[in-house]
Amino acid sequence: MTTKHISARIFAFICIANILYYFTYNLIPVFWHINTCSMLILLGISTLTNLPFENKQKKAVIPGVVTGIATYLAFMAGNWLLQWLFPLLHQQVVEVYQQLAPRKWWHYIVLCAVFVPAEEFFWRGVIHGLLVKVFKPYTTVFVTAVLNGAALIYSGYLILPMAAFVSALIWGILYIKKKNIIGVITAHLIFDLLLLVFLPLH
Length: 202
What we know:
The chain crosses the membrane at residues 7-24, 60-85, 105-123, 159-176, 181-201. The chain is an all-alpha fold. It is 78% helix and 0% strand. The N and C termini lie far apart (47 Å).
């Protein structure tokens, strides 16, 4: 696959993702319905694209759990700093919880079974997998994180692109270290369960 072909595929996939995120965050009353459809589309794209590397011999679940907890603790510390240094950004955290937090039983199911794997298979599996053919591993992690964060700009909340960028950096590093998407999905799942279900930051 040539660099031109890789660039074309990345551009196409990023355009699709941005369109999906745009409609998801501009139809807040039906956010969970639209986002479920969007994530299923991204998951479908991912199944048609080979993952860049899968070391099935590496044990990635435990590092994933540790990384998920560490990511949550980092966000907890960041939230505490926001309260003191940037109260307007902290107010956005409260508003995001009020508007987007899961409330119905099926929200929790799609969060774990659809949102988390779809995002990781797409951003780490597809986008990272294509970019790593062009850039060095850590550059790939950074560029993927930028693209991931930028896709959430449609939410209207600065805090969401920032959060997506930081978490994508952490999980991207885990991905290149363990070379296993399952570990990253585990990290993302643990983080989301802590952040949205068991220990929300509000």
